[in-house]
Each structure stands twice: as C-alpha cells, then as structure tokens.
Design brief:
Layout (H helix, E strand, L loop, with lengths): L1 H28 L3 H5 L14 E5 L3 H10 L6 E5 L23 H10 L3 H7 L3 E4 L4 E3 L2 E2 L14 E4 L2 H14 L6 E13 L6 E8 L4 E4 L2 E6 L6 H8 L11 E2 L3 E9 L2 H6 L4 H4 L5 E4 L8 E6 L4 E8 L11 H6 L9 H13 L4 E8 L2 E2 L15 E3 L14 H18 L12 H24 L17 H14 L3 H11 L11 H9 L5
Parallel strand pairs: 1-2, 1-10, 2-7, 4-13, 10-18
Antiparallel strand pairs: 3-6, 4-5, 7-8, 8-9, 11-17, 12-15, 12-16, 13-14, 14-15
Bound molecules: flavin-adenine dinucleotide and 2-acetamido-2-deoxy-beta-D-glucopyranose (3 copies).
The site of flavin-adenine dinucleotide has 42 residues, from helix 3, strand 2, strand 7, strand 16 and helix 12.
Length: 525
C-alpha cells in the first residue's frame, strides 16, 4: 500500500513538474508584448489628445518621440539649442562621433515610424545589413542564429556613423506628413511650472537662442529627452514636486572610449583580409574583454560612405592618440583566445594605407545612472511628465548595443499607452506618468541590472551606493555559463542573440531547455 501510494505520489508529482515545466517553457519563450505593439507604432489616433506636447531635447530620443507624439497631438513642439543648423556637429552630445552599433529593435521601430526608412538611409550611405555584430567574448566567437531565419538571413540592422544617422532621422522627421504639426524651437528648456493642485505641469519655460524667455501654456505632455543631463529631475524639484532623496542611483564603470574613423577607398577595402561572412554584418568584429581583465571592447565597423571605424576602450588612461600607438595598444588586449589575426592585420593595413584617421577620444565616460521615477510615491509625479532615453536610464556603452534601441522601446511603450486612452475623453489620465514608468521597469530595468552587475566584475568599477563589487556574483557566473553554452548549442545562441537585440524578453534565458544547457555546460572562462 505504502509503496503504491508513494508511486502515485511520485507519478503525480512528475506530472505536475512536467506540465509546469511545459508552461514555464512556453511563458519564457513567448514573444514580448512590445513586439506585438510594433503593429500600432506609427498609427495616428483619430481623435487627437488635448494640449501641446513639448519634447525637451532633439537628439535621437527627441526625434523619435516627436514623431510618435505627432500621431497623438495636433501640436508638438521640439526644443533643442542645436536644432537651428542641423548640418553643424552637435556639441552637447558627448558621443556624437563615437562608434555606435544599432540593434534590430531600432530598425523594426524606425520602419514603422518611417515607411521610407530603408530608402532614405540607403540614399545617404547607410547600410542595412545582417544584425550580427560578430561578437567574440574574451577571444571566443559567440555565434548568431542564422539557422533560425529562411535563407540564413538575419533581420537587418543599420550600419552608419551616429552623426549621419542622427541627421538622417531628423530629415525623416521633417519629411513625414505629420511634420506640419511639429514646431521646431531652437532653444533651451529652463523649467516647468506646476498646476495649482500640483497634479500636473501647467507650463514649460523655454529660453530661445536670442535670450528671450517664452512660457508655453496649455501643456498636454512634457517629455524629458535631455540625455545624460537628465534635466527633468531638476525641473520637477524646482517646480515644487517632492522627489525621494535617493531617486537617482549611479555607479562608475571608469571607462575611456576612442573611435578612429578611416576613409577607405573601395580599392583598399577589397584588399582587406575581412572574411566573407563578416563583410555583410552590422559590424565586422567585436571583441569584448573578460571583465576580470577590465571592461573593454574592441571593434571594427564598416559604416556609411567608405568609412570604417575602429573602436577602442580602456579603464586606464592609455588610449592611442596617434597612428603609431594603435597596434601596440591592440597587442596588449587580453583574452582566453587571441584576437582574430585578420582583424589585427586589417587594422595594420588601414594604419599603413589610409590618410590620418580622425581620433574621437572620450577621456572619461562619466557615471551611469538611472532616475527611478517609478519609485516616486503615487500622486507625487505630475501626470503629464515622462522621460525617454538617457534622460531616464544611461547604460555603459561598452555593452555596445542598447542606448538607441532603448529609446525605441520607450517610444513603443509610450505609443501603446497613448493609444489606450479612451477616444471620448482625449486627455491624459491622472496616473499616466506612473503607468509609463511602471511599464518601463518591466521592460528596461533588466538592462540596468545585467550591465551594472557585469561591470562590477571589473576592479576599476566603483559600485553604486549600498552595493559592493560582490553584488552580482551569481549573475556573472550565469552569464559566463550562458556564453559558454551559446558556443555549443544553437538554441542558447539563438536566445542570447534575440535577447541582446531586444526582440525577446530576458525571461527567455530562463526557459528550462536553455537553463539546463547553460547549467550543464562547463564554463570556458
Ligand atoms: C561612448 C558612447 C558610445 C555609445 N555607443 C552606443 C551604441 O553602440 N549603440 C547604442 O545604441 N547606443 C550607444 N550609446 C548610447 C547612446 O548614444 C545614447 O543612448 C543616446 O545618445 C541617447 O539619446 P538621447 O536622445 O536620449 O540623448 P542625447 O543624445 O544625449 O541628447 C540629448 C539632447 O538634449 C538636448 N538638451 C539638453 N538639455 C536641454 C534643455 N535643457 N533643453 C533642450 N534640449 C536640451 C541636447 O542638446 C541634446 O541634443 C553610446 C553612448 C556613449 C557615451
Ligand atoms: C554619403 O554619400 C551620399 C551619396 O552617395 C551623399 O548623398 C551623402 O551626403 C553622404 N553622406 C555623408 C554623411 O557624407
Ligand atoms: C495637424 O493638426 C490639424 C489641427 O490643427 C489637424 O486637423 C490635422 O489632421 C493634423 N495633421 C496631421 C498630419 O496630423
Ligand atoms: C487638479 O486640477 C485639475 C484642473 O486644473 C483637475 O482636472 C484635477 O482633477 C485636479 N487633480 C486633483 C488630484 O485634485
């Protein structure tokens, strides 16, 4: 009796485990909501919302947000001191000339917002190519999931210098039919004023380039797109909104970032030893150093109009500042396997045969930070204020991927929330801001956690208040197991690629079939 009882018990336990395992697998592998929400990105609402939408900052976040808001408001004002002459290099964006790689989610979103995205970007020299960054972790290749796609063609990503991308996006914004309702105000947002009962923002104060101050009234929505400055926090405090003391945690990865841009003639390019498989990728080579050797990424990117960028980073003040210093710097990069010899040879040929490259050196990337607006007590945030892009979360750029795609993810979230507003009551609900930030916690906080905890593996990293470099030990251990498993199992490589391109949710990494492969695999590092 006892035996048969325990058999029944075991059998039913096994059934429960198996079926919950299947459910667990399904939940983890299901596509994230934001992919379905792409369908309504770029779709105008019939009954527009009341009031003026003010976009503060006109860089990548500001451009994308202005386009989204023009589908929801009849009056959108885009304010930025550097919008008078778009051809002029931006001086307020530290990374304007820094090497950038863009992810699939960015392309997916941009195509919805601008159906002519591909044509226009190609016309100005952009390359829409396979979203394979040719990642190598500590010298070891981490494959991309070509087998998942018909004809072995991965979804596209954009390869283009950031400066050119930004100009092209702005041109798209101005060409789109909704541009009739977008007003460009070259100037600086100085602050906001609260409504009498402190529940919303009543007006926005703008200083125009000639020094005059203008007060914008009848505000529908205010979007902070001021990037690294994260000015919104200061505006809200100055307007009397009470924000918690520890609203903006930050840490210092201590990195320096160099981008060398070479002009490469087609004739010289044909002589470079870049393997065929890497040529039509978004970047040709990315080498991410194991964190215990220091946070560093080395990359080669074929960008627009016969340009190629070599990106070098370091936690020490030793970045090359002249051509003869480039190869010795590269030879000091360490890993579990050496850098690809064709990569080193390519850089050597570029150094010997090209004119002097431009050197863009960011001597020190200041701290990474996260304004935790979602932690403000209910009712204390104005209902019509949100932040998008770096104004909300700034991630360490050595993870070469997320900044611009995170802007797109914020924009998808904003668009969906706006579409969910009742057509008969065309005003923002009192909890609009709280809902926006809450949704973003689920979608973007993981990026902040995984990159930060990875960075703590480096001796040079200064953790945020209340944490030590010991935080995230398990996360780092698991990250190394996952990367190791990706070199052996297509399924793991596929999940890792989709999560990194922000087209799968991070929970996909916890699907049982992925988890056990990761745990089973001996770490290569
Ligand atoms: C070195 C480096 C490399 C990077 N590499 C990548 C990469 O490979 N891939 C990737 O996706 N991301 C990368 N990023 C991140 C990416 O650059 C940012 O996430 C992106 O620029 C964010 O855009 P943004 O519009 O939010 O802010 P920003 O581009 O910083 O723009 C802020 C804008 O606000 C304006 N502004 C400021 N204050 C005011 C005010 N008071 N009133 C009006 N306007 C104001 C400024 O003039 C500026 O135009 C990198 C970042 C760095 C630092
Ligand atoms: C790149 O070349 C195209 C012509 O092929 C030109 O229209 C465009 O302005 C160039 N872009 C840059 C950033 O130089
Ligand atoms: C622009 O705004 C006007 C109202 O001022 C509205 O009738 C029109 O539909 C809007 N145009 C677009 C393209 O959104
Ligand atoms: C604040 O005032 C506005 C009108 O100015 C009103 O619509 C809103 O309901 C008020 N909010 C609260 C929380 O009292």
């Amino acid at each position: 009796m006892g035996i048969s009882h325990s058999n029944i018990y075991l059998a039913s336990a096994a059934c429960v485990l198996l079926s919950s395992g299947i459910v667990w697998q399904k939940v983890c592998k299901s596509p994230p909501e934001w992919i379905a929400e792409l369908d309504i990105l770029g779709q105008p609402r019939k009954q527009k919302l009341l009031g003026t939408a003010v976009v503060c900052g006109g860089s990548i976040a500001g451009t994308v947000v202005a386009r989204v808001l023009a589908d929801h408001f009849d009056r959108v004002i885009l304010v930025d001191p550097e919008l008078l002459d778009v051809e002029k290099p931006k001086t307020r964006v530290m990374q304007y000339n820094a090497a950038h790689a863009f992810l699939t989610l960015f392309t997916y979103g941009a195509r919805r917002l601008w159906p002519n995205f591909d044509t226009e970007l190609r016309a100005v020299g952009g390359r829409l190519v396979s979203a394979d960054v040719q990642l190598h972790y500590s010298g070891i290749a981490v494959p991309a999931p070509y087998g998942d796609y018909p004809g072995g063609r991965l979804p596209d990503s954009l390869a283009m210098r950031r400066s050119a991308t930004q100009k092209a996006l702005y041109a798209l914004l101005m060409q789109h039919p909704t541009a009739v309702n977008i007003t460009i105000w070259p100037g600086t947002v100085r602050g906001v004023e609260a409504a009498d009962n402190q529940s919303s923002i009543r007006s926005v104060i703008v200083r125009k380039l000639d020094g005059t101050e203008v007060v914008l009234n009848d505000i529908g929505l205010v979007v902070d797109c001021t990037g690294r400055i994260q000015a919104g926090m200061k505006w809200l405090e100055a307007a009397g909104f009470s924000l918690p003391a520890n609203l903006r945690p930050f840490y210092k990865p201590n990195i320096r970032y160099a981008t060398l841009c070479f002009s490469v003639s087609p004739e010289l390019e044909s002589r470079l030893p870049i393997p065929e498989f890497a040529l039509n990728s978004v970047s040709q080579y990315v080498h991410s150093q194991h964190f215990t050797y220091g946070l560093s990424v080395t990359a080669l990117l074929k960008t627009d109009n016969d340009t190629m960028q070599v990106m070098l980073t370091s936690s020490e003040d030793n970045l090359p500042r002249s051509v003869p210093e480039i190869l010795p710097f590269i030879s000091r990069i360490r890993g579990h396997a050496p850098l690809a010899s064709w990569f080193v040879k390519t850089v050597e040929i570029l150094c010997e045969n090209c004119n002097e490259p431009s050197f863009d050196i960011i001597k020190y990337v200041p701290e990474q930070s996260y304004v935790k607006y979602h932690s403000v007590p209910a009712g204390a945030l104005p209902s019509n204020f949100i932040a998008v892009g770096d104004a909300h979360i700034q991630l360490n750029p050595i993870h070469v991927r997320q900044g611009v795609s995170k802007v797109m993810l914020n924009a998808i979230t904003l668009n969906s929330l706006l579409h969910s507003i009742d057509a008969l009551v065309p005003i923002l609900p009192g909890d609009f801001s709280a809902r926006y930030f809450k949704k973003n916690v689920a979608r973007t906080e993981g990026l902040w956690d995984t990159t930060r905890l990875h960075d703590y593996g480096s001796l040079a990293c200064e953790p945020m208040a209340g944490e030590t470099r010991d935080n995230g030990r398990v996360a780092r251990w698991f990250e190394l197991k996952l990367i190791s498993a990706a070199t052996q199992y297509e399924e793991v490589a596929s999940v890792l690629w989709h999560v990194r391109n922000m087209v799968a949710a991070e929970r996909a990494l916890l699907a049982p079939t992925v988890l056990w492969k990761a745990l089973w695999t001996r770490s290569l590092f």
